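Model it.
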Amino acid sequence: MMRFILLAFIYSLTTAYADTKLSLMGSLLYSNPDTNNFSNANVTDEISGVGFGVGMRALMGMQDQLNFRSGASIIQKKFGYQTDSSGTKNDNDFSLIYLNIPLTLYWRASSQVGFFGGSALNAKLSDDCNASGSSNTCTKNKVKPIVFPAIVGFDFSFTKKLGMELSYEYGMTDTAKDLKVHSAVASFLFHLD
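Modeled.
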């Protein structure tokens, strides 16, 4: 039985690899912090920001219309928040760089449109935090090294070579202590096949 499962797994990987479609991606990410769980700071304003991304998307065929959607990209998430401590306002502006590896299922509805959903592994490559105000310190040491957002989205093709992908990333895990980040993502695609 174990041999059969192993052979079926190897066959599915071989089939998926043979039917892989690659695309180059350039992305804009509109990120919004969620500070509702902050326990030690009085957040008066959440600040959204726009970041960028570049990478490659891979659609690996599993069945006629079902694909495994993965790849790798470098993405930047920018956001911030303002706190008020005893009448003193402090700004914390974050810029985080991640290696993003999507782990989603993709369903091709037609030759032009497809839908996807799942999660992603975001591994932190660098973090930067600028603070202003009386404390003038950021708490970037509390930024998590790995984040898992839930992802839903769709893509469509303009031509055989050009397309666009629109998605929403909901922060399931904390980006930093008591802080989650949600992002709307628009990606331009250049299909290599």
